[in-house]
Amino acid sequence: MVTPGQVLAVRQGPRPQAVLSPIYGRVESITDGIITILPTHTRTQLNAYIAGRVRQVIPHEGVVIEAWAHVVTGAYGVGSESGGEILLVADADQVLDISAVTGEWQGKIVVAGRTASLELLQAANEAGCAGVVVAHMRSDTLATYAGSNSRPGITGEDELLMPVMLTERFSPTMMRSSIWQEFSSLQGRYASMSGKTQIRAGLVRPEVVVCEAEWPKELPTSEVTSGAVQVGDLVRVLRSPYLDRIGRVMALPKERQVIATGSSVRVAEVLIDEELVALPVANLVKIAEGGTHDD
C-alpha cells in the first residue's frame, strides 16, 4: 500500500530526483520503470453549505464554518442541502397553479406562497429548481413527494431530492407576514437551504440561510445556532393547546420531564401572554431574529 506523497523511486546523482505517489493505492505492477498503482480511495469534493470563516478544522472529518447570516427556520421539511438565489413568485396567501413553473425557477429557491400541489413540486423538480418554500402542505402530499425516503419525523437523507420547507407545518394557513417580508427583503440573494428535519433527539429544523459578506464590528456574546432553541429565543408553538401561539423561552431545564403522553422529553419554559408554560422543545420552532450560524 502507498499513500499520497510517499517516495516510490529515487534517482541518485548530482541532482537527485524522487517520484512520489499522488494517491492512496496498491502497487499493481512495476515494469520497465513504470509503476502501476491501483487506487483504493476516491477523492471526493465536498462543497461548503454556507459561506463564512473556518473556525475549526476537525482532522480527518471536516471543518466548522462560522457565518453572520439571516436564518429563516421552518416547521417541517424534506430533501437535502441545496443553494440558489431566492425568488418570490407568490404572495403570502396565494396558491399557485402548475402553470406557474417556468424556466426562471431553474437553480432558484422559490418562495411559492400558501401551499403547493404534488404536481407543482414534481414540475419544479423537473425544472431544476433548487428548493421550494411554502406555508403549509398536506402531510400525505409531502410523503408522496419524498417517496420511499420519507420517514415521519426524520427527513433529509436523500441527497438527490429537491428540498421543500414548510414555514407553518401541515394545517391550512397563510405564510406569516414576518417570514414573507424577510424573504422579500432577501429577494435575489444567494441562499443555502436544507430540508432536513429531525423532530425528536438532536432536534433539527429545515432552514434557509443567507450569509453576509460584511460582519458587524462587535458580535453578540452568545451565538445563535439555527434549529437549536435557546433561552431568550422568540418561538412559535407547533402543537395544541398552544398551537401557533408566540412566546419567549425563559428557561431550559436540564432534567427531562414526563408529559401527558407518558414520554420523557426535554422541555422549555415559555412565556406566552404573561403565562409561563412548560412545552416540549420538539414542539417549538424559533423565529430567527439574526445571529451567527455554524455549519
Describe how the helices and strands are arranged:
Blueprint: E1 7-11, E2 17-20, E3 25-31, E4 34-39, E5 53-58, E6 62-73, E7 76-78, E8 81-88, E9 108-111, H1 118-126, E10 131-134, H2 139-146, E11 164-166, H3 177-185, E12 190-194, E13 207-211, E14 234-237, E15 246-251, E16 257-258, E17 264-265, E18 267-272, E19 275-280, E20 284-286, E21 291-294
Parallel strand pairs: 8-9, 9-10, 10-11
Antiparallel strand pairs: 1-2, 3-4, 5-6, 6-13, 6-21, 7-11, 8-12, 12-13, 14-15, 14-20, 15-18, 16-17, 18-19
Overall description:
The protein is mostly beta strands and 295 residues long. It has 3 domains: 7-39, no CATH class; 53-211, Glucose Oxidase, domain 1 (3-Layer(bba) Sandwich); 234-294, Roll (SH3 type barrels), CATH 2.30.30. Helix content is 9%, strand content 36%. The protein has helices at 118-126, 139-146, 177-185, and strands spanning 7-11, 17-20, 25-31, 34-39, 53-58, 62-73, 76-78, 81-88, 108-111, 131-134, 164-166, 190-194, 207-211, 234-237, 246-251, 257-258, 264-265, 267-272, 275-280, 284-286, 291-294. Strands 5, 6, 7, 8, 9, 10, 11, 12, 13 and 21 form a 10-stranded mixed sheet that branches. It is elongated, with a radius of gyration of 24 Å. Mean pLDDT is 86; it is low at 221-226.
CATH architecture of the largest domain: 3-Layer(bba) Sandwich
Q: Can you give the helix content as a percent range?
A: under 10%
In CATH, the topology of the largest domain is named Glucose Oxidase, domain 1
Could you say which structural class the secondary elements and strand pairing correspond to?
A: mainly beta
End-to-end separation: 34 Å
Q: Got a strand count?
A: 21
Secondary-structure element order, as H and E?
EEEEEEEEEHEHEHEEEEEEEEEE
Give the strand content.
35-45%
Strand count, sense and barrel status of the largest sheet are: 10 strands, mixed
Query: What gross morphology would you assign?
Result: elongated
